[in-house]
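User: Let's play a game. I give you a shape written as tokens, and you guess the letters that built it. Ready? Here's round one.
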């Protein structure tokens, strides 16, 4: 990662016209690849229906990372911005509330916990995640988006034992520390939805950074019961001025 100035995050020079053409072409190919997945899913659902299994099957769609194609002058899937981190998750089936959409964040460990709960199975080890169906029900009952801290980290794709960054995504904030430089990065999506300003050094966010540092340290190496499980708590807000 490359950082320029306390309020600007970048990853290199702007792309040339030729590079942009290549990115558009690759992006189009990825859309076409996704359409092939759509057709495969349609075939699977048709088979479930014809075999009488559809109404007793839970289907979960998600992914591990989003792919950045030119956003923030970057390529790849291991960045701290929403293009990499904010992946839609869709569930349908028995036990899943119908026709609702919530903004509560979940993580990949939650999928395993959810599958076990829906299957009424007892996991053989302590679970890092929570049952997503309960999150959906709780959000609907509360009439608002509920938040819990989600630990985040990125590791080299070709191996290695040193992370690229570690941090936390919590409500409106993403807070990370770049491992190689120790540089902190804070995004406040409430005022900067495109995540273009690093606010970690902004004095108005001193209390926010202090709170997120404590929370990140608490859950950095969590496992089982020590991982964040509740959607509660009050987030600090920036000072006026």
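Assistant: Ready! My guess for every position:
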């Amino acid at each position: 990662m490359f950082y320029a100035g306390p309020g600007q995050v970048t990853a290199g020079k702007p792309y040339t016209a030729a590079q942009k053409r290549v990115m558009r072409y690759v992006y189009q190919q990825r859309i076409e690849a996704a359409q092939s997945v759509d057709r495969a899913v349609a075939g699977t659902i048709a088979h479930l229906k014809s075999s009488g299994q559809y109404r007793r099957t839970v289907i979960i769609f998600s992914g591990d990372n989003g792919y950045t194609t030119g956003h923030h002058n970057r390529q790849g899937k291991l960045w701290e911005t929403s293009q990499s981190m904010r992946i839609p998750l869709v569930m349908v089936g028995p036990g899943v509330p119908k026709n609702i959409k919530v903004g509560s964040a979940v993580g990949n460990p939650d999928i395993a916990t959810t599958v076990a709960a829906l299957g009424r199975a007892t996991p053989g080890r302590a679970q890092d995640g929570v049952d997503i169906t309960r999150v959906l029900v709780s959000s609907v009952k509360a009439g608002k988006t509920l938040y819990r801290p989600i630990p985040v980290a990125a590791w080299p794709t070709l191996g290695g034992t040193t992370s690229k960054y570690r941090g936390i995504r919590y409500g409106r904030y993403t807070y990370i520390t770049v491992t190689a430089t120790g540089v902190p990065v804070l995004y406040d999506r409430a005022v900067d939805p495109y995540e273009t300003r690093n606010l970690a050094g902004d004095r108005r966010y001193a209390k926010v950074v202090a709170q997120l540092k404590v929370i990140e340290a608490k859950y950095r190496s969590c496992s089982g019961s020590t991982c964040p499980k509740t959607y509660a708590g009050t987030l600090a807000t920036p000072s006026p001025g």
